[in-house]
Protein: Cytochrome c domain-containing protein
Organism: Sorangium cellulosum
Amino acid sequence: MKRWCIPLLVALAGCRGQASSDPPIHVFDDMDWQPKFQPEEGTSLFPDGRAMRPLVQGTVAQGSLDESEAFRTGKDGEAFVAMAPITVDDAVIRRGRDRFNIYCAPCHDQSGSGQGMVVKRGYPPPIDLASDRARGLPDGEIFNVITNGVRNMPSYRKQIPVRDRWAIVTWVRVLQRSQHARIDDVPEGQRGNIVKESGTP
Ligand code: HEC
């Protein structure tokens, strides 16, 4: 018998067609064996002994968001909501100022007049947020501008979570009010503290 027949016979002997309960020999194990946890598996890594971790607080399954449509979109049907659908308090307004100064002031500047640093360097100037046009926009439309952008203004949907967008809307209202303030807005005891800028009537 020629010598090359021997490996051939050995190879053929492996093809006997019998079932075996032994695991197959893994010559190349590729990624069949991975150091990972299976669902429901236990571990000593965490004090509760579970490899499956509880969901992070605030996790929402797709399609299970229970906030109202007005809250998520700023719209009630086709129309923009006139008022932000959140409870506005001091903390919300402060949060709004904080987020406005981060995300909006680069273009709109901190007063909202539209002379932010990005504009000074050549970006198309936005309208004054205290202008009659901006004051006339319903809260829902300002929310929508932040969410989707408008003409030359990019969308901030990805950077700013929904609740913060509403907080920013409340701060835009504060800026608008501050530029159109009347003496009645100042508590009586503090009216004497107001200093008129030179040149203003
Ligand atoms: C990159 C610069 C930039 C940033 C950042 C920016 N805006 Fe604007 N915004 C613009 C420009 C430019 C316009 C004018 C859009 C146009 O009419 O072409 C505008 C317009 C607006 C308007 C008026 C929309 C209208 O219908 O006339 C509002 C309200 C507004 N921005 C709010 C915001 C708020 C709130 C933020 C922060 C979340 C923000 N913007 C961030 C550039 C910016």
User: Anything to note?
Assistant: The first helix runs from residue 5 to 13. Helices lie at 5-13, 69-73, 90-103, 105-108, 117-120, 132-136, 139-148, 162-179. The pocket of heme C is lined by residues 103-104, 106-108, 118, 123-124, 126-127, 129, 133-134, 137, 142, 145-146, 150-154, 156, 168, 172 (CB under 6 Å). The first strand starts at residue 75 and ends at 76.
